């Protein structure tokens, strides 16, 4: 699914009653809210007759409404979610992609200060390195959600306007381009407004093409993370030990860092040290006591997993507002980094 996308969707569920109340229409150009979309594009110099024709051609997709009502990030445990994304196959695909685009990844890392393994993990989780860019026509997805999904209708109508704008700016054909059920496109699954705000021309051909250009996708993911204030060198997450029940108050604060390591310790929560701690040498903190963190309680294969996470974890959630998504990206990035190091790549 994708960039800000699942982010914006996480936690917004459509129950059966709400779904039943949506208005079915055979012609979205005649929907009561379509006039505002057409008018907005007309004010931007677009051919309103063509816009109206494409809206009339857009097809309501009930499977999209069903999918958005039960996002995996809200219905699965960490153990279940991780098995989808943390596979040997996805790691090997990441290594292959890294080998094929080594120079581009190095250039993106140098320009944006975002590690190549994080860039690789995002593209791997989103589309398996371009193997699964989505099967829905983006026009259908955005029209369905913009006109028949009341909880986020205004958001998706904004995406619909941006899709038409991208025809002019990114050489995209709004009538044919395909993507996810939420209208995300290309290798990194950017929704239209994210495409406009963060995508970059990284292969120098004067076109920003996230669908066909791996280089543009790599540069755009790095650009996105830099814009959301990724901090080079800051560890993302550490396993934690807990003593007592006071930790629960920290978990309830959510995944945005809002207390310090010192405060966590007062609540009986201590991050695993990188100095010889046996719990997890890959996920550890040796940071100042005033470092801002958040706490997670995930249900893994062996039960509760306690984590302390930094501002960089929060940056990952700006791509998708889910702690499960961010943890999958983090752990896939570690596995890819280990595989690249083992092969001296």
UniProtKB/TrEMBL annotation:
Domain Transglycosylase SLT: 38-333
Signal peptide stretch: 1-20
Pfam families: SLT_2
Chain ranges passing through the membrane: none
Gene3D superfamilies: 1.10.530.10, Bacterial muramidase
InterPro entries according to UniProt: Lysozyme-like_dom_sf, Lytic_transglycosylase_MltB, MltB-like, SLT_2
Highest taxon, organism lineage: Bacteria
Keywords: Signal
NCBIfam families, A to Z: MltB
Protein's name according to its UniProt entry: Membrane-bound lytic murein transglycosylase B
């Amino acid at each position: 699914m994708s960039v800000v996308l699942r982010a914006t969707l996480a936690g917004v569920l459509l129950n059966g009653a709400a779904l039943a109340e949506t208005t079915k229409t055979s012609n979205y150009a005649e929907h009561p809210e379509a006039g505002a979309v057409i008018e907005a594009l007309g004010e931007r110099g677009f051919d309103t007759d063509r816009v109206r024709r494409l809206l009339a051609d857009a097809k309501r997709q009930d499977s999209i409404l069903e999918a958005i009502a039960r996002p995996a990030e809200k219905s699965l445990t960490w153990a279940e979610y991780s098995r989808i994304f943390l596979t040997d196959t996805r790691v090997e695909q990441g290594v292959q992609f890294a080998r094929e685009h080594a120079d581009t990844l190095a250039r993106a890392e140098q320009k944006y200060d975002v590690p190549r393994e994080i860039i690789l993990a995002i593209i791997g989780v989103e589309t398996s390195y371009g193997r699964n860019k989505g099967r829905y026509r983006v026009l259908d997805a955005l029209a369905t959600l913009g006109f028949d999904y009341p909880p986020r209708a205004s958001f998706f109508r904004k995406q619909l306007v941006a899709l038409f704008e991208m025809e002019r700016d990114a050489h995209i054909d709004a009538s044919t381009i395909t993507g996810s059920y939420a209208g995300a496109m290309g290798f990194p699954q950017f929704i239209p407004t994210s495409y406009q705000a963060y995508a970059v021309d990284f292969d120098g051909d004067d076109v920003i093409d996230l669908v066909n250009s791996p280089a543009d996708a790599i540069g755009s993911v790095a650009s996105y993370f830099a814009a959301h204030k990724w901090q080079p060198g800051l560890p993302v997450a550490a396993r934690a030990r807990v003593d007592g029940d006071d930790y629960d108050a920290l978990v309830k604060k959510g995944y945005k860092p809002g207390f310090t390591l010192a405060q966590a310790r007062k609540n009986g929560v201590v991050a695993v040290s990188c100095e010889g701690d046996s719990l997890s040498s890959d996920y550890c903190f040796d940071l100042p006591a005033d470092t801002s963190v958040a706490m997670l309680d995930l249900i893994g294969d062996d039960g509760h997993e306690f984590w302390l996470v930094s501002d960089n974890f929060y940056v990952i959630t700006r791509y998708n507002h889910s702690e499960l998504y961010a943890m999958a990206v983090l752990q896939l990035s570690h596995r890819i980094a280990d595989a690249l190091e083992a092969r001296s790549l």
